[in-house]
Amino acid sequence: MHSSNWLEIAEFLSTVGGRPLLRTMATRRFQIHGRSILNEGRKLHVRGVTYGTFQPSGGHPFPPLETVRRDFEAMVEAGANTLRTYVPPPLWLLDLANQLGLKVMVGLAWEQHVTFLDDPDRARAIVAEVGRQVRGCEAHPAILCYALGNEIPAPIVRWHGKSRTERFLEQLYREAKAADPEGLFTYVNYPSTEYLELPFLDLAAFNVFLEREEVFEAYLARLQNLSGDRPLLVTEVGIDSRRNGEEVQAEVLGWQVRHAFATGAAGVFVFSWTDEWHRGGHEVLDWDFGLVDRERRPKPSLEAIREAYAEAPFPTAGPWPRVSVVVCTHNGAQTLSECLARAGDLTYPRFELIVVDDGSSDASREIADERGARVVATDHRGLSAARNAGIAAASGEIVAFLDDDAYPDPDWLYYVAAALRADGHAGTGGPNIPPDDGLVAECVAAAPGGPIHVLISDREAEHVPGCNMAFRKSALEEIGGFDERFRVAGDDVDVCWRLQEAGWTLGFSAGAVVMHRRRDSVRRYLRQQYGYGKAEALLERKWPSRYNRAGSSRWSGRIYGSPASRTPGRRRMVRYGTWGGGLFQSIYEPAPGRLGNLLLAPEVLLVIAALGCVAALGTLWAPLLLAAPPFLAAVLAVLGRAVLSGWQAHPRVPGRSVFGTFQRRELTATLFLLQPVARLAGRLRNGLSPWRRRLPPGASLPRPRTIEVWSESWREPGAFVQLLQDSLASRGGYVRSGGPFDRWDLELRAGPLGGVKIRTAVEEHGSGRQLLRVRILPRASARGVAVASALLALSAYAAGSGRPQFAIAIGSALLLLIGLGLEGTGTAMNLALAELERLRWAVSAQKDRRRPPRVQAVPLGGADADTEIDAVRDEVRQ
Asked: 468 with 343: CB under 8 angstroms?
């Protein structure tokens, strides 16, 4: 039968309520898997065009059937596989799309341009209308997803408020999901309301009209981080050929499509298919965004899109660097088979698969052999040693590491290689997303302590987790590979820090996705957290300057963990711009204060325990009961955070029972309580405690000192401070840099109660000669002063109330505290003086030895400050 006759029959059957055979026989559904959309189990790269809106014809806002058929055939010929409509299409159009292999993103139309929430009847009518429109599509197999709305105007959102708008969109989602439980739903946002947080949606979608290439690429990277672990659809890109010319339109659309896929988007829609466009019942004649004109004559942009879509997500033609994928395993047979099978499905043209069997006693080696991997067998020497064995065996320019309980996205290596090739980084990483793996694993994924990345910017990382990281082999060899003291964890943190110390940078690619299984039992999760605490103790011994006094690592970038790990109740502000006119309206979230950081750290349990002990002693002496209120407040704060985090982690989901949601919230809250206990146990047992000491006691009198260092050769002023900081840290001191509002440059502590602050000034004396002045000021810990003041007050009160035994006991504790503070300050003063003397001797004897600023330094391969000073001394001796 001729296609047009069939479509006429299909249209008739749709009108009378029948169901064409084509629709009933088609296989449905599309699924979300990490940041990908799956079509019958295979990854779908959405190559789309927008279609409409048009002048109504035949009772619907679409062209006549024959025109639609010719448009669809031309779309397929141009390489498109999806079209986007702005109103629900008639069923005959969906049938035609399905026949030609096109998917449809269906827009749901409602009155979003008015203050719709000011009228409750209107709001209810909108909800009902959205449900009716979804039911009218009859869960058609051609439907990729539904758009619950498109660009609610920024003034309307600001009028109603962020939270109120979000709740209404969630109401629309629930109504639509009830009408099509298996359907995928999104809301099409845009930069002026990017602050809307809609975690219930299946997909993230944004319209992005930016005509400068570098700005467009950077903003897409930002959108990837805003989207979380969901696929991102770029639902409109384009440029007006009337104002810019058809050749410029072709050029811009080409790089817009390529950048959309290169930054990790699941797909992109070009706006629009044709210049024919109606809005509000009127034809728009002064904009020409189409790939074809109003008479359907192709523009140069159509060929540009054809070429870009043919390459998506990356061109297979080279040159692509060879990559060695290294999987280290120790008794990981349970998950190794899936890991290697998925790795074998990678679409990258040039890679090898290496399995390092770290002394396994299960069937890991046999599984690797069956999957065709190259096996490197070693004795059980730990994870870092296994990684080094993989590096030695690798033949690729890039070494990519994958955990044996993870598996990669099919395009993983393309994104890895593209990031390393384009930006010159030493290494790169990407998201690691937990697959659906049961109730316990789902709760563990929402709990704190998982593998996370730390980003300095949207495309540069400070840390990438070991389950998904890749490096230039030459960079790893330059720093000597992985440090084999890290047998279970901490190896990834250490190698990232060493690469950055050597002058390299790390990248981050949102498209380089791996699916990483979380622990599937509470016991295994807590054992993992204990191991992480142990690894942190090892890291702190090697990198003391990167840890604070309490024992937590310090990062300059932003930590990207699960949404539930955010501190509940923190105020978050929207930057609307003056009079609500900001083009990019985003959320501003202030950094947590000291109290907030304390509540997030495992060491808060030590504070609670101390307050509890003091309060318990109140049974012997009533004034000590003053510790009871802060004790109870701290306990309630920890419990409240756990409960709120468990609640946030598992919102109500259509189709899930109330009991199922309660189970997840309860277990996640329990994990939030238990995780700090396990982590703290690992830290304390291995020497990472707030009262740790790395220095022997010193003997310098803690009084202000001024030291002068004369230099005959010029240095960047900051280089003196950096050299001193590195030298103090290498001797075991706890060193912290001053902030932008501090008059001091460095703070040095030898213990928790006392230390010194160091201020520097450099005088320029011409011909490259400099005089460095260093002021050393003894300082007591603010917390130590507060505790000492409290003890003094209690001791005085006990003496005045006739309880001399308590006065003596508390006074003894006070004297001990003061003694420890003086000793810590004296030790810090002694170390500072000793290191400044070494620096003065070396620098004053140095002649015409110039060193560029640290940020421009050639990678030193791990050389520290002591090495530099010793090298200067050796040079002088020679």
From this structure: no
Q: pLDDT tens digit string along 58-89?
A: 778 899 999 999 999 999 999 999 999 999 99
The overall average pLDDT reported for the chain is 88
d(CA 731, CA 687): 17
CA 820 to centroid of chain Cα atoms:
41
Q: Dihedral of CA 137/139/145/150: which sign?
A: positive
What does the alpha-carbon distance between residue 440 and residue 836 come to, in Å, rounded to a whole number? 55
SS (H, E, C) 326-348: EEEECCCHHHHHHHHHHHHCCCC
- Distance from chain centroid for Cα 258: 23
Beta strand ranges found along 65-136 (DSSP E): 82-84, 103-107
| The token pair that represents 697 in the structure block | 């006691």
Residue 425 three-state SS = coil
Cβ(620)–Cβ(538) below 8 Å: no
Q: What percent of the chain has pLDDT over 70?
A: 90
pTM above 0.90, yes or no: no
Q: What is the pLDDT of residues 735-754, one digit of tens each?
A: 888 888 899 999 988 877 88
CB 769 within 8 A of CB 782: no
- What separation in angstroms does the CA of 421 have from each of 394, 402, 847? 18, 20, 41
**What are the residue ranges of helices labelled H in 618-698?**
628-649, 658-685
Q: Which two tokens stand for residue 222?
A: 């930002």
Q: How far apart are CA 309 and CA 254, in angstroms?
A: 9
Cβ pair 63, 285 in contact under 8 A: no
Q: How many CB atoms lie within 10 A of CB 738?
A: 15
Closest CA to 729 of 717, 721, 739: 721
Give the pLDDT confidence score for residue 597 in this predicted structure.
62
Q: Which residue has the tokens 């200067």?
A: 872
Q: Buried b / exposed e across 861-874, counting CB within 10 Å, b at 16+?
A: eeeebeebbeebee
Task: Give the whole-angstrom CA distance, residue 671 versus residue 678.
Answer: 10
Find out whether 23 and 98 touch, Cβ atoms under 8 Å.
yes
Banded model confidence at residue 844, pLDDT cuts 50, 70, 90: low
- d(CA 43, CA 56) in angstroms, rounded, equals 36
**Is residue 571 classed as helix, strand or coil in its secondary structure?**
coil
Instruction: Give the separation between CA 675 and CA 642, rounded to whole angstroms.
Output: 11
How many other CB atoms are there within 10 angstroms of residue 311's CB atom? Answer: 16
Enter the DSSP assignment of 290: -
